[in-house]
Automatic annotation (TrEMBL):
The keyword Methyltransferase applies. One of its GO terms (biological process) is methylation. This is Class I SAM-dependent methyltransferase. PANTHER family: METHYLTRANSFERASE (PTHR43591). Residues 60-156 form the Methyltransferase domain. One of its GO terms (molecular function) is methyltransferase activity. Coiled coil: none annotated. Keywords: Methyltransferase, Transferase. Residues 241-253 have a biased composition (Basic and acidic residues). Residues 240-260 are annotated as: Disordered. It comes from Streptomyces acidicola. CDD domains: AdoMet_MTases.
Length: 260
């Protein structure tokens, strides 16, 4: 299905009836031959935008899958790049496909871990993620963003692309609505659940939860994808910068004194 090298309809059905972790273990060998892999056009646009903000020293690809976003980090990070994912199968494929650099570059590592329980301290200057947020329910966003916050150094950045939602006049609007509805029905009648909802990650909610988690949020238009009829970008890069904890404590202290 999708391409001659992609998964069959039966293989996709077996994946969809599995847990997220097991499903991606099964799909991993053929994942890069599906539309689920982040397109190179988005990866290249984000790399260009991050290059203007960097360079960075240590980068983390959150929910890295087979490593499509790892190339972005290798291009903008000088010291180290780590990919973390819950699926051992996806990590194995990513590790096996790791290109041999023509010249010295950042150290690269692949780590199995849960995005809601990251095994890192505040060591990263940059965290990126591509196409993985549909695997988290809105009630999990505070925990997810809190984990990213704890893995970043003060002043570190969390960056990810966020396409504008399709309007109701677009066939994509109805296709994604149908997919999300089918997944909700599937999860209501079949266990274990397979969480993947394309329409649950909305900019307004995401921005609010990022700010609550201790980030300052900026939006960067990705001009490569043009504009909608109302002039808004078709795709943005969200950049959330971790606030300095000492500054937050001083602000809270001043607010408390002013209130008294």
């Amino acid at each position: 299905m999708f391409t001659p090298h992609g998964p069959s309809l039966r293989e996709l059905a077996v994946q969809a009836l599995s847990s997220v972790e097991r499903g991606y273990d099964l799909l991993a060998p053929k994942f890069d031959h599906t539309p689920f892999r982040t397109p190179d056009s988005i990866l290249q646009a984000v790399e260009r935008a991050l290059s203007a903000l960097g360079p960075f020293d240590h980068g983390l690809d959150l929910c890295c899958g087979t490593g499509a976003g790892m190339g972005v980090l290798r291009a903008v990070c000088r010291e180290s790049v780590i990919g973390v994912d819950i699926s051992a199968g996806m990590l194995t494929v990513g590790r096996d496909q790791e290109p041999r650099p023509a010249e010295p570059g950042p150290r690269v590592a692949w780590v199995r871990g849960d995005a809601l329980a990251l095994p890192f301290g505040p060591v990263f200057d940059l965290v990126v993620s591509f196409g993985a947020f549909g695997h988290f329910l809105p009630r999990e966003f505070p925990e997810l963003f809190g984990q990213v916050h704890s893995a970043l150094r003060p002043g570190g950045r969390f960056a990810f692309p966020l396409p504008a939602p399709a309007p109701p006049s677009s066939p994509w609007y109805w296709a994604l609505l149908g997919f999300d509805t089918a997944m909700r029905v599937r999860n209501a009648v079949w266990h274990p659940p397979f969480v993947m909802y394309y329409r649950a990650f909305r900019l307004g909610d995401v921005r609010r939860e990022l700010e609550r988690a201790g980030f300052d949020v900026e939006l960067y238009a990705l001009p490569e994808f043009g504009s909608r009829r109302d002039g808004s970008p078709r795709c943005r890069m969200v950049v959330a910068t971790r606030r300095d904890d000492s500054s937050q404590r001083r602000e809270a202290s001043h607010s408390s004194l002013a209130a008294s």
